[in-house]
């Protein structure tokens, strides 16, 4: 389930034939789902975008059987994620930037806030563990092509794309050059390898 029709279309296309799964374009925070029907809910980098996270998790918890589990991965804070921290540092003197704590990739960066959200939504047995890895960013047959693709991903998708959306061409060109200079100093051939930091979160629906 996802609010993005292109992502659901892509999931359908990648699923092996006769995969026993349903793909649905909907908002998990409010979609009508059968209560007490599922053993586990899981998400990969999706739950940080809920406008009302407590309400969303409370709604989703009702779809779990007693003792059912939720598991998800979300980004930690901007300061720990070089794939966003470095471009933000490069752009902060060029354009106004969004608040990283607003609904978006880093709104779950504070583990205490995540625990509060899940507790308020009725979950128990909450476990939040850090996970660190080098993230391949961009792709291309040459290093220059990979760097250019990484810059494109950074500036055309996500919070930085919104910051640049209404900017004139000269500001956008300046932003491109600043981020490209940062990425050029990183390792990687077929992709730019850059540090990523996430939480792996697990919790349980009470048994009664």
Structure description:
It is a single chain. The protein is of the alpha+beta class and 208 residues long. The chain has one domain: Rossmann fold, CATH 3.40.50.150. It has seven helices and four strands; from the N terminus they run H-E-H-E-H-H-E-H-H-H-E. A four-stranded mixed sheet has the order 1-2-4-3. Helix 5 crosses helix 7 (169-184).
Total count of domains = 1
Instruction: Report the radius of gyration as a whole number of Å.
Output: 19 Å
- In terms of DSSP E residues, the strand content is 15-25%
CATH C-level label: Alpha Beta
- Gross CATH architecture: 3-Layer(aba) Sandwich
Shape: globular
CATH homologous superfamily label: Vaccinia Virus protein VP39
Give the neighbour order of strands across the main sheet: 1-2-4-3
Keywords:
4 strands; four-stranded mixed sheet; 36% helix; Rossmann fold; alpha+beta; 208 residues; 22% strand; single chain
Write the layout of secondary structure elements.
Layout: H1 5-14, E1 38-44, H2 53-61, E2 64-75, H3 82-91, H4 111-120, E3 124-137, H5 143-156, H6 159-164, H7 169-184, E4 192-204
Parallel strand pairs: 1-2
Antiparallel strand pairs: 2-4, 3-4
Helix pairs in contact: 3-7, 5-7
Short description:
By secondary structure, the protein is α+β, with helices and mostly antiparallel strands. The protein contains seven helices and four strands, in the order H-E-H-E-H-H-E-H-H-H-E.
